[in-house]
Structure formats: structure tokens, C-alpha cells
């Protein structure tokens, strides 16, 4: 597997040039494998990275809880084991569609990713509320509908990853961001199952649904904060009036971080 467009054997010389030009335009540069302690320090002190980590940890609790215990939870709605397994298909299908749709929209329109992220959080909150407050009678339909629409979390998570990796530059800093997202993903998967208390089944697992609703409210608040941080930084950089294209092209391949490169623009 090639580690950069330059070494991509399956691309023609023209395609390699175009790929490198895209990297230059985005000011992310070609892959550099040298570890830089200065970039690590900057990453640790960068509030954007920790906001993304908070968003990922809070958003992925639903996977550890609802997806992990899905058939068990659906069976408590009065459905058979087979039906409980079959009802995983609507959730998975919706998750797949939302991921593709948000990815396509994000590639077509500029700076709508955080708006889409917040939008995808809302059905998850609604789904948790429906499950929690609806009647769990024999073969109840309402909680199954609520369970299915929690599949919007797939779009939320994919957007968090995209936003996180698109808003850092520099090899060491990007590696730190990727590692932080992975750790946050693991934290969400660990925390989620802890909210499922079997002794509260007759009360519709209140700790689970309330906990997930709180987590997604946290995700919305963190993403809103990130939106203003990124937008204000872009405005500040635009006000500098830098327009030297030769310098811009030169800095694109210097393995500079997003903070070091004044031509870098954040996407949100």
C-alpha cells in the first residue's frame, strides 16, 4: 500500500500531480514520517483536539449500549429472539444510508459538517426518549421505531472523524489526533454498557436512555463550541490578507501544523 500519492503505483503521472495539488490546496502536505516533539506539545494544548475527543466519546456511548445490547433490549419490547435480531437491520440500514448521505453532502457543500452533525444528534435523542417513555407492551411498535432511528448515530460518528482529521496538519499532530479519536471511541464503548442496569428493566432502563440523551446534548454543545472556534480562527486569518501564492505553495509541504501555517483554513 503506497504511503503517499507520489508513490501510488496505480496512478498515472498526471493523476499523481493532481493528487499532490489537492494536498497543496488543502495545506496538508505530503506524508512525513519524522516525529516532532513540538507538534506533540501543540496537539496536547490544542482545545480543538479535546473538543473532538469529547464529541467522539459522548457520541459513541450509543454503540456500546444500544448496538451491543440491541437484541436483548428489543426482546424486552415483547418480540421473539428472531424478531429481535431482524430488527437490527433497520438500524444498520439507516446508519449506512446516513453515513453515505452526510459524506456526499459534505463533499458538495462547504462548511456544513457541524450543522449536519448537530442535526444527526437530534433523531438519536428523540429515539432514546421514545424508547424510554413509550409503553413496552407485547410486540410494542413505538420503542422499535425509537430504537431504529438511533441509527443516525452513524452519521454523527463519521462526521466527527472527518471534522477531526480535516482540521489538523503536521504528521505528528495528525497522528495524535487519530490516536485521540480512537481512545475516545474506546471510552464511549466502555461507558455505554455501564448504563444498562438489568434491575431497572421494569422502569425501561432509565439510566441508559437518560445517560445517552445527556451524552448527545454534550456532543451538541461541544460541536457548537468547536464551530465558533474554527469559524473565528478562519476570520482572523482571512483578515491578515495573505495572498502570496508562491509562499503558500512552499509552506504546503513543510510539514507545518495548522497553527504554524497561516494559509491553512479550517473546515466545519
Characterization of the model:
The protein is mostly helical and 268 residues long. The chain has a single domain, classed as MFS general substrate transporter like domains (Growth Hormone, Chain: A, Up-down Bundle). Helix content is 68%, strand content 0%. It contains 13 helices and no strands. Helix 3 packs antiparallel against helix 10, helix 3 packs antiparallel against helix 12 and helix 8 packs antiparallel against helix 12. The longest helix has 33 residues.
The percentage helix is: 55-70%
| Tally of individual helices | 13
CATH superfamily: MFS general substrate transporter like domains
Tell me the total number of β-strands: 0
Q: CATH class, please? A: Mainly Alpha
Distance between the termini: 30 Å
Q: Oligomeric status of the shown chains?
A: single chain
Name the poorly predicted regions.
none
In summary, what is this structure?
The protein contains 13 helices and no strands. The protein is mostly helical.
What tags apply to this protein structure?
Growth Hormone, Chain: A; mainly alpha
Summarize the helices and strands and which ones pair or pack.
Layout: H1 13-26, H2 37-44, H3 47-59, H4 61-67, H5 70-75, H6 81-86, H7 88-108, H8 113-133, H9 142-149, H10 153-166, H11 171-194, H12 206-238, H13 245-251
Helix pairs in contact: 2-11, 3-10, 3-11, 3-12, 4-11, 7-10, 8-9, 8-10, 8-12
Pfam family, one: MFS_1
Membrane topology: Multi-pass membrane protein
Subcellular location: Membrane
